[in-house]
Amino acid sequence: MNNKPIIAVIGAGLGGAAAGALLQQAGYPTKVYEQAPAFSRLGAGIHLGPNVMKVMRRIGIEDKLNTMGSHPDHWFSRNGLTGEYQSRIPLGDFAREHYGAAYITVHRGDLHELMVSTLDQENLFFDKRLVDVDDQGGKVRMTFADGTTEEADLVIGADGVNSQIREKLLGSEAPIYSGWVAHRAIISAEKLKAYDLDFEACVKWWSEDRHMMVYFVTGDEKEYYYVTGVPEPEWNHGTSFVDSSQEEMREAFKGYHPTVQALIDCTETVTKWPLLERNPLPLWHDNRLVLLGDACHPMKPHMAQGAAMAIEDAAMLVRCLEEVGANHYREAFELYRTNRFERASRVQKVSHDNTWLRQDEDPAWVFGYDVFETPLKAPEAV
Ligand code: FAD
């Protein structure tokens, strides 16, 4: 008989889906509750570095992702105004050889759909917005917006930047608006053929206070994507994103290189997102509740490692439960925190400063990390 604890994962985002898949694979009876009624193919891309691809290998979807994604040979950083190269970070074969897996860029919706498909569909519940959680010592009782309640032995808060579980642990506190927004647009590569310009597979165009990151999101390179970082002093829209426009993009990137102007000219739909952060949290877990991903360390996306940290968290959490034995969940949660706090906080800081790969540097501490092999540090005795 399976005497493993019943685990509830709140949120089926990239972190929650990874946690659910790895827990189910390890034999934990796991239910995943997601507030959205369904997921749609939102117009966005995402980088998956070798550090994340090692987790995807364990989940069993590395090959599919390698087919699905674009495989840039380099990450280029270029001066947005002159086009001059500031860094050329080798990826491609170099990444496979030196970091142990590929570096790919994919459509976020395609990645998410694939990850969610790895979950036991009978234990994945949509339209389930958690509104309250009561850690009763022996069990946790969860209440959902539809009035239903459920129980679990352990609850993982993978519920994003406005996490209910974080609120339960630390009280209500809005995330910090960073003062930066991101514009996101997907462009048909067909349109770019009209230009006598080189559209590189992974390039970040920089100037003093803003940037535009550009890459393909499909293996056939039919969809090209840009995501920006642009200062905007306030965000008063009250929604997670708003529509932007070609005019706004032209204004924001006035004087930028002709390649960037071509991308703006080819833009049909562009959205604008506030970039939110929190300072590192003093508490990641309490009794039967534990946090991962944006619920505990939301960051500016300027290292393209936010989801990567959520997915690494999920893998480390399952590793620690297995290492300690899930019935000693408090020790397992503390081992997890001890082995994630420093790395996640460092990535938060570098993302905040927006210095990652701006000049040539060695990215091995990020890309070479293997969450399954890294030696575990013991928590400090208290
Ligand atoms: P989320 O993805 O936010 O998922 C949380 C889930 O929980 C959602 O599905 C939500 O609906 C659900 N939920 C919330 N509240 C409840 C509730 N009460 N009850 C039930 N369900 C609930 N990261 C990268 O690694 N690479 C990139 O290239 C990259 N680019 C980015 C570009 C932009 C513009 C932005 C904004 C972010 C980017 N990120 C990137 C960061 C990445 O998107 C996040 O860090 C990542 O999505 C965090 O995953 P998560 O699972 O922790 O949270």
Name a few traits of the molecule.
single chain, 382 residues, alpha/beta, eight-stranded mixed beta sheet, 25% strand, binds flavin-adenine dinucleotide
Task: Describe this structure in a few short sentences.
This protein has twelve helices and 19 strands. The chain has 382 residues and is α/β, with parallel strands linked by helices.
Cofactors and ligands: flavin-adenine dinucleotide
Query: What overall geometry do the principal axes of the alpha carbons give?
Result: globular
What is the count of β-strands?
19
Strand order across the largest sheet: 5-4-13-14-15-12-17-16
What this model shows, in words?
This protein is of the alpha/beta class and 382 residues long. Helices cover 32% and strands 25% of the residues. The longest helix is centred in the C-terminal third of the chain and has 25 residues, at 329-353. The two termini are 36 Å apart. The mean pLDDT is 96. Bound molecules: flavin-adenine dinucleotide (FAD). Residues 10-16, 33-36, 46-47, 128-130, 158-160, 164, 182, 184, 227, 273, 293-295, 301, 304-308, 310 line the site of flavin-adenine dinucleotide.
